[in-house]
Amino acid sequence: MAVISVVVLLLAAFHHGDGTLRFASYYGDHMVLQKSPQRAVLWGYGPEGEQVTVYLTGPFPQKVSSPPVTEGIWQVTLEPVDAGGPYNVQAESESSKCNLTDVLFGDIWLCGGQSNMYFKTSQIFNASEELALSSKYPHVRPFMASLNMSKTERIDLIQVEIPWSVPTASVLAEFSAVCWLFGRYMYDTLKYPIGLVESCWGGTPVEAWSSSRALKQCGLQQSEDGSLMDNTVLWNAMIHPFLNMTIYGAIWYQGEANAEYHKDKYNCSFPAMINDWRMAFHQGSGQQTALDFPFGFVQLSTYKNNSTDDGFPDIRWHQTADVGFVPNSRMKNTFMAVALDLPDKTSPYGTIHPRDKQDVALRLTLGARAVAYGETGIPFQGPFPKQILPIEMSIIIIYDQVVSVTSSKNMFEICCSEKNVSCEPKSFWFPAAIVDWNQTSIQLFAAQCPVSKVAALRYAWRDWPCEFKACPVYDASGNLPAPPFITNRYTGNQNIWKST
Fold first, then answer.
1. What's the whole-model pTM score?
2. In whole angstroms, what is the distance from residue 265 CA to residue 267 CA?
């Protein structure tokens, strides 16, 4: 495979090589560059054959020169810079100069997905209070790519929607709420600059954000009808341009569009996209972005109350590569915010767009602190079964942590089989009521069939399983909901079933 950074430089020259010395579109005043131990990459366009020298002036100045401009492109990689600033960056060739001012060094997080990531800060609960806090976070800097598609991979953005900015209420009103809240919550913990890059588009499937390489891994063919459902069109225009930028990690809120579109492929296409992004950013940045950079995502919230459709439950399961939790062996260095207990019946933007993005971002932040930053002692996952014991007329579920439980008649469901075969979401499922619990286990009453015939168990397998923060199983604090699961006694993840 050709090194991606070489390819993107040649493509850049083709599209932008007019000889003017300037930075690429996503560099600008007030920006954040990736801090040490990674090294920030700077690139742009310049006069053919001239050498470009970049001067970093500020707390720790440095000077670095590029090779001669080739095909209209120059690029330099700075020495590692500790978090802080501000810095000025000046690029000089023999014939001209260009500058960036008020540049900070910190961690860069890319925020992607569809409409719930695109959902603006001005639309959330308590928006006015949130927007009023903007002046207290001058070191959390937003940037937003414009909505554009492309049939071919672009080296640079076609257009910028929000240039790098010191946050103000007017800027944040139009910026992703989940992205902003995640950034400011992380700043409260890390106490150094955070750069937030929003690149998302409502109503889009994972296939549009994936390269052809990733899609081929899942047997998905190229599609071309000129719509947002086309494979690769947003990867080409809104992700590929960022490959030369050094980033720390990514967060993602998407999946609603795949509840009907290639749903059964999502357990492949989503992990494949994550791994492909990691490889591409690593190569595009000259190995500065980590090959396994942390990737967080939001497990889908809710859409239709009382729906019997399995679209959302299936996608929630597939978001974890059919394991039920992350990180796991197929999705390493990932973290997840469970959101199925955050419905919003009265959202003026439709129930598919709940306004409580604060809890979503807080749960993402806990995952980032534990997984991306290695902070110990941080609860970031809800309870998950580690053992299931069928006993007489009951099923005992033993969890991997202390649980907080409220009674429920139908959140757990069982499937019976006379022939000891596995059950599927479309099989007949019967409610199994919670009849007792202790610190680490729950007892269910299997009324519909003998325990010996119980072939499968599932939890919260509905589009809208519970009301706001009212699911029956949480962690000890009552803040982190148990994720949904489905487990078969005779196939798949049957290893947690124990005979008595």
1. 0.94
2. 6
